[in-house]
Amino acid sequence: PVPFDLGARLGSTSLSVQGSATLASAQARLQVGRLPLAPFAPYLAQALAEPLHGALDAALSLDWRAAIDGEPMALPLGASRLTLADLSLGQAKRPQAALQQLAVQGATVDLTQRTVNVESLRLQRPRVQVARDAQGGWSPLRWLKPSAASAQPEPGGPSATPPWTLALQSLQLADGSLGFVDELPAEPVRLELSALQLKLQNLRPLDARQPLMPLTVSGRVADAGGGPAEPGRLSYSGSLRLPSVAAGHEGLRTQGRLQAEHLPLRALVPYFGDRLNLELLRADASYRGTVQAALPEEGLSLALAGDVALEDFRANTLAPGEELLNWKSLNLRGLQLALAPQRPLQLVVGETVLSDYFARVIISEQGRFNLQGLLRDEGVAATQPDATATTAATAAASAVAAASVPTAPASASPAADAGLRPDIRFGPVSLVNGRVFFSDRFIQPNYSANLSELSGGLSAFSNASTPTGGTPQLADLALRGRAEGTAALEIVGKLNPLAQPLALDIQGHVSDLELPPLSPYSAKYAGYGIERGKLSVDVKYLIAPDGQLTASNQIILNQLAFGDRVPGSDAPNLPVKLAVALLADRNGVIDINLPVSGSINDPQFRLAPIIFKLIFNLIGKALTAPFSLLASALGGDGD
User: Fold this and answer.
1) What 3-state DSSP class applies to 436?
2) Angle between helix 576-583 and 626-633 (nearest 10)
């Protein structure tokens, strides 16, 4: 062997080569100091569309052995250390990608065997800006210059060269950041991922069969489009298998434990906002539990088991912008979700807690219930009964159900698209400290009422049919609160928010409700405003699966007094004050029981006009048979 030792400088960079050689073999060790990439810019420009800045230093080795006695030539290259520092792609002041350091240790490249083995690859403080423009083009694709298509071997020609293999024992990413901008939606999506940490082991991306690789990743997620200042946190620990390059093998697969806290769901609204009839101002999503996901050729499979929270939720109506829904926290505990190709969606929630919530319930000028149309699905909305059939008490129950129980539209999942009915099961639902602001704009002048201190809940329910194929089992409902700050409100009974068709059996009770705020109703239907009085109501509503409504309304009016007739009123001109005087007992109390029946499937069905028609009939009876009513009020046996 002939030893050699070479020292030189390339600009300001020191180079040294030591080794020995014969006619059949050679070994060399190369030490490179900090070498700027600028002198190599013309070469890099052949592949990169943007200028690349940085510096390299390395400790390299080469072992060459000639082909002897049938043994093939060997040419392994080694890198005990290879470092790229202060890398930046693009303009120096605003690079599209930057990296503080890329460090490779223990790398071996065998040019004859076409193998690459790396012990460790570490990326320190990588920063990348990724954007998709309005035409759907991704910015990373523009970093590389297009290359000529590689020549394809002709059929029947010589066999292809053996493929390269790559084995990376450890990949680490420390303190990374990713800026993401998507301009394809009508409203751009802007996200900022920071403090990214990643560890991946046993990476073999070119193998025909992919191994399961240990994976841990963590970071922070923020809405870069003007969301809350405090970013959410994300961490995942588990395993990952990349898609196989060979046909017939499984695709991407991962399983592990995910902890996500306060992720800014508002930032993703441009992807699904066109399906909402509301403006989502804020929503922080959290999840703690396990994840199993696979993406084979037949479609996505997903299994979740853990706890979900949707916190600091705020949403307004579109136009005009009014407060619609908000809550402090919605917790779904013991969630289990299973989604697989050609199988029905399965959703189980062990317990649901909704706390510090608010709902704006509005009956529109057209008589429609605003919470019926939160999702833009005309087919579903058209099948709902008219909102004028809802009293203030049942409006509170409907608002609570809409705010606390998610529903699954027919096209919400691949299983639904395939004609498979989702299987949805909920455990107990608890409602704590709620408030509902109810407005009836169908009435002129408008009527509004505040329902507060609403607490209670639902027992377990599901969309599963009974063993005989009937309507799903109804859940027990209990809700208590106050109306207008003084009147006691209680709603109890049975209902199932997931039942199709609608079925319920509810009883409502309101006591000592001040009557003057109800003047808009009395002005519309009776022609007189209310000066004073209190109202207590006991209502019972039973809706059968066929849509048949059976209801009773026990109404007690105490010290009711009407004012003057409203000028220009379209209501029948009846002597209402005289009727009230005849209907009241010696203590000034009017006790009325009004049974109602009908079908909510009838487009002409309206509950409020039916009740007031019964009241008018009672007023007519009072005027035509006053002595009978007086005798009854005095305890006699009048006819």
Assistant:
1) strand
2) 40
Q: How far is CA 28 from the centre of its chain?
A: 59
Q: Is 259 helix (H, G, I), strand (E, B) or coil?
A: strand
Position 262: which residue type?
H
Q: What is the pLDDT of residue 467?
A: 66
β-pairing, 504-514 vs 13-21, is unpaired
Which residue, 450, 449, 616, is CA-closest to 528?
616
pLDDT digits over 287-304, tens only? 999 999 998 888 899 999
Q: Dihedral of the CA atoms 492, 496, 501, 504 (nearest 10)?
A: -10
Instruction: Decide the pairing of beta strands 279-295 and 252-264.
Output: antiparallel
Residue 562 CA to residue 120 CA, distance in Å, equals 87
Contact 64, 75 (CB under 8 A): yes
CA count, 13 A, side-chain hemisphere, 592: 26
CA distances to 286, 567, 629 from 308, rounded to whole Å, are: 6, 56, 60
Beta strands 429-440 and 447-458 are antiparallel
Intervals of the chain under pLDDT 70: 147-160, 227-229, 246-249, 377-420, 443, 466-470, 603-639
pLDDT of residue 475: 92
Whole-angstrom CA distances from 259 to 242, 291, 382 are 22, 10, 40
pLDDT (0 to 100) of residue 383: 37
State whether residue 270 is helix, strand or coil.
Answer: helix
Provide the CB-side half-sphere exposure for 443 (13 A, CA).
25
Rounded Cα–Cα distance for residues 603 and 639 (Å): 39
| CA quadruple 235, 240, 245, 247: dihedral sign | negative
Q: Which residues pair with residue 7 across a beta bridge?
A: 16
CA distances from 139 to 94, 131, 144, 185, 634 (A): 14, 5, 10, 16, 88
CA dihedral angle for residue 332, residue 335, residue 340, residue 343, rounded to 10 degrees: -90
Closest CA to 84 of 123, 117, 48: 123
Distances (CA, A) of 62 to 16, 281, 418: 14, 61, 59
Distance between the two ends of the chain, CA-based, in angstroms?
133
Length of the chain: 639
Chain centre to alpha carbon of residue 631: 64
pLDDT of residue 388: 35
